[in-house]
Design a protein that fits this description.
The protein is built from 5 helices and no strands.
Length: about 130
């Protein structure tokens, strides 16, 4: 296994960078949601698009943790993050289809849970030896 200057393998470094990007993307999502409500409603389209794009790094984290033994300690957190993401999409989709404002409100609350958990997972990924 090739290591770089800080002692991390190349794939571990990639995992850490991807996991650090997820909370940033979630923050951007929350910001876009607020801007679409209070500033410009057309930003909702960008919010939805970025929401679908967030799946790529989250799924990447799961795949990397499954494929490489040195990243396996991160698998549980990556799966929880994937489950929170699936719940996020389900809350909005089901809420919209059924007209349930309660489910749509839970979509907002889950965004903050996802943000906090993704930050925790990124910190743990960086700290694991």
């Amino acid at each position: 296994m090739v290591t770089v200057a800080n002692g991390f393998s190349r794939r571990r470094r990639m995992f850490v960078v991807i996991s650090a990007g997820v909370p940033v993307l979630i923050f951007a999502q929350v910001l876009l949601a607020g801007l679409s409500i209070y500033y410009d409603g057309s930003l909702l389209v960008v919010h939805k698009g970025l929401g679908m794009l967030i799946a790529v790094p989250i799924v990447s984290l799961v795949v990397l943790a499954l494929r490489h033994d040195d990243l396996r300690p991160n698998l549980g957190r990556a799966l929880v993050l994937l489950a929170l993401y699936c719940l996020q999409v389900a809350l909005m989709s089901i809420g919209r289809e059924t007209g349930s404002g309660f489910l749509q409100a839970l979509h907002v609350a889950n965004a903050f849970v996802m943000g906090a958990f993704s930050d925790f997972a990124a910190r743990q990924a960086r700290g694991l030896s």
